[in-house]
Amino acid sequence: MKRFLPLFFFIPLFSSAQLQWKNVDSLYQPLPKNTHVFFTNDSLDGKPNIAYYFITDLKNKEIDFAADAKNGTRLTPSQYFEKDNHPLLVVNCTFFEFVHNSNLNLVASDGKILANSIQTIANKGKDTFTYKHVFKSAIGINKHRNADVAWVLSDTTKPFAYASQTAIPFFKDSLSYYSFKKIKEKNIASFKKWKIKTAVGGGPVLIQDAQIKISNEEEQMFAGKAINDKHPANSNGLYHQ
Description:
- The protein is mostly beta strands.
- The protein has helices at residues 77-83, 180-186, 216-219, and strands at residues 3-6, 22-23, 36-40, 51-55, 63-66, 96-97, 102-103, 107-109, 112-115, 120-122, 131-133, 137-141, 147-153, 162-164, 171-173, 192-193, 198-201, 207-208, 211-212.
- Strand 13 and strand 14 form a beta hairpin.
- The model is unreliable at 6-15 and 234-241 (pLDDT under 50).
């Protein structure tokens, strides 16, 4: 019997303090092979902190990696746990807005796009009537159970996403929308069809291919001095090995 692991990645951005992690597998048995849970409550810069991390084997066919998105309705992780038939683990992911309760990042499951990444942000103040065009990141798992961290382009005009393996600087102009064709015509990146089975967005990327690639400025997420903010943040690109 396969265990389902919905992907809703929620990774705190920790400071440089060394945390002492304790294996707590015994509290969550039974666990699949090569699967472990670690816990810490060490303080960070003198502030209270509770954190977990979960390790499993992507190649373990006892586990299915799935994603879920309920656009228009806000559900808590506990509600997703009940909705998705009590999976092994539920992890929060994607940013969302509260007006329409919509996801702002890419979500895909079984090869189908459940939510698209928001590519355009309206500017305010003196820059009203101009727009930033951004390419946010996501982590995807293909049918061969290989993981990939990439910067994506997706909207409702296509049933799949395109991906770039390099971070793309945002650009600003007066156009509120860019089609796939126009983005490609601008030749700003080498986008290719992203052949993934499951994907979740968040951002910004921190590490890709074992190299530090913090793309908060390109993705316009925690840009400028906000990179030093200390609060939990959805971050999907931590470990791509």
